[in-house]
Structure prediction request, 654 residues.
Amino acid sequence: MPSFNSPDVVAQVEQHHDAYERALIAHDVAALDGYFWDSPDVVRYGVSEHLYGAEAVAEYRRSGGPTLTDRRLVRRKVVAIGDNVASVMCEFHQKVFGQPRHSRQSQVWVRLDGGGWKIVAAHVSNALMGPPQAGSLEAFADQTAAVLGVPLAAAHRPGVVQNLERAAAIAAPLLKLPLAAEAEVASVFVP
Amino acid sequence: MTPALPTAVEIAASIRSKRVSAREIAAAALARLRTTGPELNAFTLVTADRALAEAVKVDEAIATGRDPGPLAGVPYAVKNLFDLAGEVTVAGSKINRDDPAATADATAVTRLHQAGAVCLGAVNMGEYAYDFTTENSHYGPTRNPHDPTRSPGGSSGGSAAAVAAGIVPIALGTDTNGSIRVPASFCGIWGLKPTYGRVSRTGAFLFVESLDHVGPFARSVADLAVTFETLQGPDPRDPACSARAAEPMTGLTSGPAGLRVAVLGGYFEKGASAEARAAVGQVAAALQADRRVELPTPELARAAAYTITAAEGGHRHLARLRTRAGDFDPKTRDRFLAGALSPAAWLLQAHKFRAAWRDQIREIFRDVDILLAPATPVSATKIGQDMVELDGIEVPLRPNLGLFTQPISFVGLPVVAAPVWTAGPLPIGVQLIGAPWSENSLLRVAWALESSGVCRAPVAKIE
Prediction:
């Protein structure tokens, strides 16, 4: 049975994780490479990518990746397992296409002989936002799209909801307008 | 650099009097297209064989003493949403490339053909016409001939650019919320958005059936008038096309005397840049228009036009949104998807408001004949530009380019977009707005503005 949560180890790992977060936001590619275990056995699952080996992880970073400047940690739990292993679990918020996203990140950190603390495995996932609030345009979009048989791809959904929000705001003063009963849209049939 | 083409009326006169052949003119237009075309990125299809074949027919008619028509040998281009027999109608999209070729010409194309005109090809547009800048992700942006770093306006940007560059004297476009008037303004040429239902849309790939209009671009009022005269008239195949017979445009040189002209105030001045206001001022001064008229709640008319556009546009593309959403231009996709999902209550309220507002606007025309307003709030904007300052506030550029056009087409009023040059290096358009079926009056006013030099549409200087 290893010892858990040595305060000294937790503090060290938190410090490294803080620096890692800063490098992420700054998109400091060289620094980020340095945090990952330089081994073909390192694994990183992103929301949509599955990277095996340090080379694949480094290549992904260089291909651009998303902008994370508004990434903000909302909760973090570090558990030290013995003196040389720690799990780091956190929740963070960031906007994607202007829409707030709630995501999670799980990492296993290991202190290598002479090599310092490195991430040997990591996984990022988006939290299911829960069912959208009843009456919200998100819920409306999902349900109407389902009724009409229009598949709403995850990548398009935020933009669609944003456009519905704009359209709702534009239609609002129109909907408040009292219209005369004889204001009707009728087709006229002329013999 | 090969020379620009003269006006349509000049070309037709030269050909009829046998000073030049229709074939020579077609060859000259193709040469002008080759030297200016690649940089402007206006044409997406060049129908050289068709143009030469049509030109040969015109030359044969003249040789055998038959009437070759009022547009004899005049080259023209069409927005690539018009059917051309044997060609695929792409409407600015990637998706429609998989459609079969059109089996017949659009009605507007047929009428130009019957008048002796020669089709040079199809030109670029914003995807499915949901656009004001012709920045098309599939075919690239079309560039403004007056400044290639700028947009020609949209969605009929290719049509306006081809005319302003002197490749063709006339071109066809469509206008739902401003898609003829915005590019006419940005490119400094004449554009005519006819009364809703006066020009057939059969064979044009529609965007919003309740708001779609077909109309011409030109660099002279005479060309605009003769092209409109050719296009107008009933077509039983277009359910929105009026049965009212075509009427010749008469008395164009008689001046604007007797027409009551007023400047649209309020909403139509508030969001206008200094140059847009200056342009309206120049036209108003020339027409001695010192009256101001305000329309009731133009912002609601714009809101209703927006709502109808989203819902009908989205519905038109429902099948494509189900199966090929990923193949839409990212600039239009989310708007079409949102429109397809929009609630019926929004659309019906907008349509009912339209009927009520049409009646209010009819009253306005009891004591005025012509209303003046800017065609665009600003002159041509940069390609890639996202924001613009209007009335001291930064707002998204693209939706706001239709600020002054959208409420007018909402109730189908005819408009001539007149090109004005103010102190700046770029032109800007002024809308001459009339009551339904008043195109003849609008063209009379346009003729006077052109004759007095207040409005002009020179061929762009292209290096």
